[in-house]
């Protein structure tokens, strides 16, 4: 169901794919909820620069960025490229991160407003960046949060670059920072080189609803930062939530984003009134995402039909006003004694169940490989190869082939490679949660 676009908002639509049929006594309903946002063709372009977005770029300036020296130069160039991609009117700042966080531009605890002059000043300030010191990523994020909070922008975004591990901060301190920043801004995290911790970088992106990736060759940073910033500049609305309402005696078992990446949102639920809960989805531009929703309903006899859940896209409204509903879709449950109907797998649900299993198998396989469990790693990575082949996930299949020798992809028969480069292993782990859309 689509909405009539409100001023300044894209047009949202919700489609629900499911097999609603359950056997007598069946209780679990699975559905793929596809959410699509498209530009409003009737919207009138703004006459003045748009100040809805604010961005803080956090650049690792720890001592390890000096090895090799080109790494720091590439980081400066990448940040300059990101600044060039800023739209006029967007608020921005640059933060240098070491064992502490320092404002590089504009300073004074504030943000600059992008135009030709401020872009030039920011790039001039970047030339003075030099490596030295440790790494405490939580301090970088807390400074970014303070700067973004003062902007008043609806779309608040961070870009974080690191080349090493968070060695000068306890894991609990970073976790507390991520908990404090969650829902306040989104953040894309990038690891450059191969000396950083994949789980750390992915954890930052996951907590802050951003993307994570590896840039093994620092020369590729400028192109990557430009793509990130162009995506951010395409966002039109922030703080969108997927609201799920369930009837009495029904409950949400889990909610997972399954495209373009796998991200479990179940534990991020915020109560939103009687039998309703909100799951954060972040900011949206011209894009489409898929969510796997599983609802447990009370058992019922054959012939009974019920609404298992109502899925809505909502955005906050001014204090005292109800949130704006952008689009809705319905998840149904129908009890039948037709065995063919009740056992049929919906193609979208089956596809994304396999995609989630693929991501899990890769992570388990790599963990077992690091632990020296050859048989366990071979079994899990073989299953990953089988799932990648079955779903047409060619990119992941290519990454897996750098870690294992594939004997029979269809059967999942593989052998672990004796030697695997750090880049190959880290790239596979970092990109393991990326998915392909279902073949329709």
Could you provide a short overview of the structure?
By secondary structure, the protein is α+β, with helices and mostly antiparallel strands. It is built from eleven helices and 20 strands. A hairpin with a 4-residue loop joins strand 14 and strand 15.
Write a structural description:
- By secondary structure, the chain is of the alpha+beta class.
- Helix content is 31%, strand content 31%.
- It is built from eleven helices and 20 strands.
- It has helices spanning 70-84, 116-126, 137-149, 171-181, 198-207, 221-233, 339-343, 347-370, 374-391, 394-400, 422-430; strands spanning 11-18, 21-22, 28-38, 53-60, 91-97, 101-105, 112-113, 155-162, 186-192, 212-215, 237-245, 251-259, 263-264, 270-271, 276-284, 287-296, 305-315, 324-335, 404-408, 413-416.
- The strands form four sheets. Strands 4, 5, 6, 7, 8, 9 and 10 form a seven-stranded mixed β-sheet that branches.
- The longest helix is centred in the last third of the chain and has 24 residues, at 347-370.
- The protein starts with 10 loop residues before the first strand and ends in a 10-residue tail after the last helix.
- Residues 44-49 have low confidence and may be disordered.
Q: Classify the secondary structure makeup into a structural class.
A: alpha+beta
Question: What gyration radius follows from the Cα positions, in whole Å?
Answer: 23 Å
Mean pLDDT: 94
Total of helices: 11
Main β sheet profile: 7 strands, mixed
User: How much strand content do the residues show?
Assistant: 25-35%
Write down the overall geometry: globular
Low-confidence stretches: 44-49
């Amino acid at each position: 169901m689509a909405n009539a676009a409100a001023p300044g908002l894209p047009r949202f639509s919700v489609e629900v794919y499911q097999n609603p049929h359950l056997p007598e006594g069946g209780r679990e309903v699975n559905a793929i909820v596809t959410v699509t946002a498209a530009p409003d063709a009737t919207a009138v372009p703004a006459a003045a620069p748009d100040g809805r977005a604010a961005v803080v770029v956090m650049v690792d300036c720890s001592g390890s960025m000096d090895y090799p020296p080109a790494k720091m130069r590439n980081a400066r160039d990448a940040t300059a490229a990101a600044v060039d991609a800023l739209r006029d009117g967007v608020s921005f700042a640059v933060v240098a991160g070491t064992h502490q966080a320092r404002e590089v531009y504009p300073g004074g605890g504030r943000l600059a407003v992008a135009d030709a002059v401020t872009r030039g000043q920011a790039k001039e300030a970047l030339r003075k960046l030099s490596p030295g010191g440790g790494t405490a990523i939580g301090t970088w994020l807390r400074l970014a949060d303070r700067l973004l909070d003062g902007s008043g922008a609806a779309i608040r975004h961070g870009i974080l670059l690191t080349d090493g591990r968070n060695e000068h901060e306890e894991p609990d301190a970073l976790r507390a920072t991520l908990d404090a920043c969650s829902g306040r801004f989104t953040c894309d995290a990038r690891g450059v080189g191969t000396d950083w911790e994949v789980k750390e970088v992915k954890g930052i992106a996951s907590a802050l609803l951003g993307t994570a990736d590896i840039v093994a060759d620092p020369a590729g940073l400028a192109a990557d930062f430009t793509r990130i910033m162009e995506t951010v500049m395409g966002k039109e609305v922030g703080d969108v939530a997927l609201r799920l309402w369930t009837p009495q005696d029904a409950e949400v078992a889990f909610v997972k984003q399954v495209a373009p990446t796998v991200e479990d949102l179940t534990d991020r639920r915020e109560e939103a009134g009687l039998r309703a809960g909100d799951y954060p989805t972040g900011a949206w531009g011209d894009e489409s995402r898929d969510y796997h929703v599983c609802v447990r309903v009370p058992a019922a006899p054959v012939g009974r039909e019920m609404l298992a859940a109502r899925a809505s896209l909502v955005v906050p409204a001014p204090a005292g006003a109800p949130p704006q509903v952008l689009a809705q879709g319905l998840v149904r449950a129908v009890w039948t004694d037709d065995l063919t109907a009740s056992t049929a797998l919906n193609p979208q649900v089956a596809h994304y169940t396999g995609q989630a299993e693929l991501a899990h198998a890769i992570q388990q396989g790599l963990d077992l490989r690091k632990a020296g469990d050859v048989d366990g790693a071979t079994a899990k990575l073989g299953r990953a190869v089988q799932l990648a082949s079955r779903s047409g996930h060619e990119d992941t299949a290519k990454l897996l082939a750098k870690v294992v020798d594939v004997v029979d992809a269809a059967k999942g028969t593989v052998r672990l490679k004796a030697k695997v480069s750090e880049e190959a292993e880290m790239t596979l782990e970092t990109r393991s949660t990326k998915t392909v859309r279902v073949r329709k």
